Amino acid sequence: MTASTQTAAPTRCRRCRRPLRNTKSAAAGIGPGCLRLERTETAGYTPEQAAKAVTLVRDGGITLIRGGLDALYRVEGAHCVYWASQVDCTCRGAAECGSCYHVLGVRILAAGRVRPSLYALAA
């Protein structure tokens, strides 16, 4: 094939990896359905916390230790290792404020929406 007949690979959603056909979605790097899910998951968190949680998942900083209804995860923070579930974490932020981005990261990973090996932030 010549260079003029090759087509560029389609932009894929950063959450579900489906091809994005809408130019607005392609520019954002996420499809409309996944965007709604992401907004629901991150409700109650600051944009900074949401960004940290996504980065934590993307970089493989969360590991499932024990599955089941009371699943436990190992979270490698910047300065320490924490233990977290979908409702609580052993970090200082969770103890003082009741929520932290580690819990959000666990929720995102547990939902299966973001896979560390596939996830890539939109530029």
Can you offer a commentary on this structure?
This protein is an alpha+beta fold and 123 residues long. The chain has one domain. 36% of the residues lie in helices and 11% in strands. It has a 3-stranded antiparallel beta sheet, with helices on one face. A hairpin with a 4-residue loop joins strand 2 (72-76) and strand 3 (81-84). Helix 3 crosses helix 5 (101-110). It starts with 22 loop residues before the first helix and ends in a 13-residue tail after the last helix. The relative contact order is 0.17. Mean pLDDT is 80; it is low at 114-123.
Quote the average pLDDT. Answer: 80
Structural class: alpha+beta
Our count of domains comes out at 1
How many β-strand stretches? 3
Give the DSSP E fraction (strand runs of 2 or more residues).
Answer: 5-15%
In this structure, how is the largest beta sheet organized?
Answer: 3 strands, antiparallel
Q: Helical proportion?
A: 25-40%
Distance between the termini: 29 Å
Strand order of the largest sheet: 1-2-3
* Helical stretch tally: 5
Uncertain spans: 114-123
Topology:
Layout: H1 23-28, H2 32-41, H3 47-58, E1 62-66, E2 72-76, E3 81-84, H4 92-97, H5 101-110
Helix pairs in contact: 3-5
Main attributes?
alpha+beta; 123 residues; three-stranded antiparallel β-sheet; 5 helices; elongated; 3 strands; 36% helix
Question: What is this structure, in a nutshell?
Answer:
With 123 residues, the protein is of the alpha+beta class. Helix content is 36%, strand content 11%. The protein has helices at residues 23-28, 32-41, 47-58, 92-97, 101-110; strands at 62-66, 72-76, 81-84.
